[in-house]
Fold these 2 entries.
Entry 1:
Amino acid sequence: MKKILIFSLLSLMSLSLVACGKKEEPKVNTEPQITQMQAICELAVMECYYHNVAKYYEEDASGVWIWAKDKKFWIEYSGIVTIGVDATLVTMEVEDTNVTITIPEAKVLECEVDADTLNENSFIIDDDSAKITAEDQTYAFAEAQAHLEETASNDTALLTEARERTKDLLEEYVNNIGEAFGIEYTITWVYLDENGNSGQTEE
């Protein structure tokens, strides 16, 4: 009787260990993930280098009448502009094998004049100019940065290139997910205008 009881207990323990040993397999997500797509958008930004010359002019800055002098000088500088799409505005919908991606226009994300390129030789002062102060140079520097951002924002070819670069990387990501799980996704692109409204659609 004792042997039968021991055998029964061992059998129950074995079943218990087998039950405990079974782990539920994690569910594999076969669809593209928006968090991954937004991370790709952040990696897809383009850094562009600009070299510009900004002009500073102030009429009758010193003196009076025939002795009046204007302030005239130029500042030569280089700057770095980061261009890309706002990742927070990128959205995605998946329905069966159809993926709809909404993407905004590319824009200037960051703009900075490279301070290392500024030195005494960067400021070209007109021979007839009134005395240039440190405040004038600071103002000119701020204007140069604003001019740099405006120049980049109006470079439609570069902005288009930045968005197309982002699209290519997102499309590659979706296709790679599809290939990994034997799914052929069809991508539809919805473009947002500068006001955030849905506009053109492209497949």
Entry 2:
Amino acid sequence: MIEIREDDSRLIGSAQAIQELSQKESARIIVLSDSHGNTEIFRNIILQYGKDCDAVIFCGDGSSDLAHILEDAESSAELKAALPPVVAYVQGNCDSSSFVMLPGKSRGERMPLSQVLWACGKGIYICHGHYEGVNFTREPLAMRADTEECQIAVYGHTHLPDSSVDEKYGTRIFNPGSCTNPRGAFPPSFMILTIMPDVIDAAFIRISDPYSRSPSFRVFTPLL
């Protein structure tokens, strides 16, 4: 069960859970982005998949949705039990820089524009992507991940699923798509990132009726 507190690195969870995630032999991580006010789909994803995962990464644009989930988890035993023990988040271009994710934080403290999460000995560079220019190229994203000694980079912003490799830096790059407002004829989607010593892989999951209280989920392979 998650301890809903934010440490100095701006990760949410207990210091023990964050440390344990970095040392696990295998990990499953929910990655979602661009919920844009649809708290309900965020909640349904957590309730459906959270118990079997070790962390959640939110790549921005909908930070209030994550805040509502964290707030509701304090009073909902079901939701708190479903939330993975570690949560990482970043500011999107549509998120207020002064938004307070958890009570007690100063409004003068900006939301993180990027984060590094360690899982199974591998670094995951997390950003929304607008400052990295992901609409045009992913090389700056891979370069920043490499600077942070990360083998993996995840981002949002484009609302398009992505699974690719930067040949120059050897970085595995992923975008879960938007769980609410997809583009490019893709369905609403998110992904489950699987990390093991010799494996970095992602399962993309399409969402039917993302605004309903009972959406359905199905693994799919986007034609990237």
